[in-house]
Amino acid sequence: MKKRNSLGLILALICSLLLTSSCSTAAGTKQEPQAWAVQRESAYFETKMLNIDSSTADQGLIYRLTDSCASEDQIALLLTYSKVNSMDRVEDVVVLMDSEGAELSRISLAQAVQGFKPTAMEYMADQSLAVLGTTEAGASEILLFSGSDGTISRTILLTDISFFVSDFSPIPNGWVLLGCNDIAFADNSGKSYFTEPLQMSLSSGLIMGENNVRLLGYINDSVRTLVTIQMDQPTVTTLSGSQIPCMEEVNRMSFFWQDGYANYEQAGVYKFDFDKETVCEIADWNRIDLPPTASLGTSGLSVLNDDTMIRNEFSIDGTSSDKLILLKHRDADPNTNKKVITIGGYSARTALMEQAIYRYNTGDHDYR
């Protein structure tokens, strides 16, 4: 009996699905961009699996990605290590990498400040790293690290913030702090000078503008709302529904928001500039080859900047560490001149089909 190689099996699977699903094929170059977005010359990202070594010799520890951020030449991953059986928190570690994902150093936050539990982090304009968390007493605190050796240059205790701070960002002469139902501005010493309750369900994090900060959410779980707060003299402006710029077409789509970036799983990642009222394409998923997840709904995407993203896949049973994939933008798209096979039909997107498409697209073929 004649044996088929793996490529033959993939092609046979695709062809059979094409026939049974009444699918069609089409050849061409890059698909037309969304009409409401400015097309990026290359929306291709190269993928790389990040192999994170354990911080100790204890094989019973697993890690979860708590947060991540990036500067022009560095990437920082905030990992929380726990015992695999009890899920007891053991330690929190910041892994510093170069822009291509090579590990540079690590910072143990337990050694830096006893009892500190981190929740988020951001790079400052001077490339120092700010880590937000809570103290043993439950107060919010920001640690500033000046280098990669774990040296703390400054500690900022947010003593008069009454809510749990889940996200933050540096602003001129201070900080903006976000909770589930509140937003506040604090000066460089950590003293709050403006607090505003949020009368909506948030769908985005902090969207930083030139002189303002914005938040997207819903009022009464149905009316999309954009809140804008000026930084210099905090004043609040609220827009809803069709009043929101750049949103006429977007209102009909299901986006996953992260700061000013929006991920539309059927198309790509887009960057919204509400000051200039523009939307720019960042990534085109049709051009990028990501390994399929073990099952649908077990991964998340962190957009760190226009050129860097992290795909995080967590285990279903919680017995293994997160699988982290680094996505880096490339100016040259190797798939530009490949002809495109379009697959359609009822329930065409299955785990088996995703695996077959990935294996075919990562092979040496004239089509994809």
Q: Could you describe the 3D structure shown?
A:
The protein is mainly β. The chain is about 10% helix and about 40% strand. The chain has 3 helices and 25 strands. It has helices spanning about 5-20, 110, 350-360; strands at about 45-50, 60-70, 75-85, 90-100, 105-110, 115-125, 130-135, 140-145, 150-160, 165-170, 175-180, 180-185, 190-195, 200, 205-210, 210-220, 225-230, 235-240, 255-260, 260-265, 270-275, 280-285, 300-305, 310-315, 325-330. Strands 14, 15, 16, 17 and 18 form a 5-stranded antiparallel beta sheet that branches. A 4-stranded antiparallel beta sheet has the order 1-25-24-23, with no helix packed on it. β8 and β9 form a beta hairpin. α1 packs across α3 (about 350-360). The radius of gyration is 23 Å and the shape is globular. Mean pLDDT is about 85; it is low at about 1-30.
